[in-house]
Amino acid sequence: ADVEVIEKASIQSINIRSALTCEIRTGICATCYGRDLARGTPVNMGEAVGVIAAQSIGEPGTQLTMRTFHMGGTAQVVDSSFLEASYEGTVSIRNRNVVRNSDGRLVAMGRNMAILILDQAGKERASHRVTYGSRIFVDDGDTVRRGQRIAEWDPYTRPVLTELEGTVDFEDMVEGISVSEQADESTGITKRAVIDWRASPRGQDLKPAIVVRGKDGEILKLARGSDARYFQSVDAILSVEPGATVKAGDVLSRIPMESAKTKDITGGLPRVAELFEARKPKDNAVIAEIDGTVKFGRDYKNKRRIIIEPHEDGGEPMEYLIPKGKPFHLQEGDVIEKGDYILDGNPAPHDILAIRGVEALASYLVNEHIEVIVRQMLQKVEIVESGDSGYIPGDNVDRIELAELNERLEEEGKKPASGNPVLLGITKASLQTPSFISAASFQETTRVLTEAAVAGKTDTLQGLKENVIVGRLIPAGTGGMMTQVRRIATSRDDLILEDRRKAANKAETDRMLTSITDAAE
């Protein structure tokens, strides 16, 4: 019944509360945390979710074979291979760039195409990004019903498509040096794949490519002015033979995607450890930082120079150096959007945070326990503009402290400070905790205590560790309730003492007035 109500309300999108976006000053609120994973009920007040999270992640570390059974880490690419309409409506294609291939199918040739579904009033109901090389089953103005398939693609490979009709020819494809026949172990089918040509002394200067020639035998020119030459990267599987006739939208080769490779048994925990220390992964993905057009610069040693020319006037072009042996799917002149992958792989969490923000990072790190720990890693903000606050650009400030200060500044009509979230490794985050007792008991004791003494810090004993150290009841579980009771009792005591003080003052005043009156008589 609830589902029907939601459907009729035609809700476009919903905000999901997450541990990473919770705005409470200390700890985390029960609504943002959600379900207690041990009991399946909403989490109780005072539950030490941080300790549970740390133990849940630490426990599988001792049993090597068990690691893969424990959920944790990052959201892997779900191998979705098609797109279905989520609403009834009319199709509109944004940045439409499609061609019909030799099978008569529509193929997406743009990298920033989106299929929109509009309702009868022309209002946008759904928007779906379409990957380059997808087969599209609908066109502008078509009517679709809910659940109808509108596009499909191969989730394991990225295609390289020809934009022109012509005859295929190979350049620098030397058998045994830059290309070889390989038999698939499972099917026994042989395929021709590009191999690392730099491994052979004779292959140092090769640049394997597929070119498309016209009827006169000359290489055709693309609409953007460059030759119809498609450079191939290592491991690309060739889909055409020399001399074959191709139409626009036909597949020349396919590049296997990094994420499609099978994960080994030890993949789980070391990745999590890498994530928590906020280290860059070994084969990290390269993410575009601006919208723009791809250009190839001069190669540097064994790296390919990729330049992204910005769309806006006056923007600085961005340069990226990419190892030549890595599978690379972009061609010169391709339009790319901020946040798109230039090179496949495991993205560094810092890059996701800097380029796409906290929400994108939250969807990359899916798991309650991991979110709790990443919340602590995201507690600091680096000041970019100080406004009317006393901070200096470059200062690392507590996120909630900054939000409270900005609120105060806005109330007074002053300019608030702004900053970018910083992802600290767990070691660094533990040393940056507000409690100096907790930080000193962890690492670098003398430095932490010296800094606390110089700054004249006060420890309010809010966490578990500092309370254990000084021998108090910890503020979690029943201790949390005790803390609350103590707080209420203290405030009541204060009120009673205040009333007594007022009564004593009143009595004193009355006595003085009486004595003055008596003296006057």
From TrEMBL:
The UniProt GO MF terms for this protein read: DNA binding; DNA-directed RNA polymerase activity
Record carries keyword Endoplasmic reticulum: no
Could you tell me which CDD domains the record lists for this protein?
A: RNAP_beta'_C (cd02655)
Question: Which InterPro entries does the UniProt entry name for this protein?
Answer: DNA-dir_RpoC_beta_prime, RNA_pol_Rpb1_5
What are the BP-aspect GO terms? DNA-templated transcription
> Which Pfam family, just one, is annotated for this protein?
RNA_pol_Rpb1_5
List, for all copies, the residue spans of the domain called RNA polymerase Rpb1. 24-399
Give me the reactions it catalyses: RNA(n) + a ribonucleoside 5'-triphosphate = RNA(n+1) + diphosphate
Q: What keywords tag this UniProt record?
A: DNA-directed RNA polymerase, Nucleotidyltransferase, Transcription, Transferase
EC number(s) in its UniProt entry? 2.7.7.6
| GO CC annotation terms, alphabetical | DNA-directed RNA polymerase complex
**Keyword Transcription, does the record have it?**
yes
Q: What is this protein called?
A: DNA-directed RNA polymerase
